[in-house]
Design goal:
Elements lengths: L11 E2 L4 E5 L6 E10 L2 E6 L8 E7 L7 E12 L11 E6 L5 H15 L1
Antiparallel strand pairs: 1-3, 2-3, 2-5, 3-4, 4-7, 5-6, 6-7
Length: about 120
């Protein structure tokens, strides 16, 4: 269990979901996969450091048959991954919170997470 996981308001599930994020400039523009996802945020693996509290536009392609979920997220933390075995580039685990989800978006993410828990 990662540090802070038991303080979360919403459960996260360890599932890979395709995600695209950018900060509206060329500084941050990634297509990657999540490490975990929930109604409060996601953890993604990035190839470069992103300073908290950078705001990012985020698109999650959830495998639930609905259109991609689009929202604005905020980088909460970014740390270099310790396991760099067989990697040519550094990797950064990056936590992104969802402070501005609509009620419908939050409920969708709660249903998505619960589909893996129960």
């Amino acid at each position: 269990m990662r540090k802070g996981q038991n303080r979360r308001k919403y459960p996260r599930v360890d599932v890979e979901v395709t995600v695209t994020l950018n900060d509206g400039t060329e500084a941050v523009n990634y297509k990657t996969e999540t490490r975990d996802v929930g109604a409060g945020g996601v953890c993604v693996k990035l190839e470069s450091f992103v300073q908290a509290p950078t705001s990012v536009n985020i698109v999650l392609k959830l495998p639930d048959g609905q259109p991609p979920l689009e929202t604005v997220g905020r980088v909460a933390w970014c740390v270099q991954e310790r396991k760099l075995v067989r990697r040519k580039r550094a990797a950064y685990e990056t936590g992104i919170s969802f402070p501005d989800l609509s009620v419908e978006q939050r409920e969708r993410l709660i249903r998505f997470a619960h589909s893996f828990l129960y």
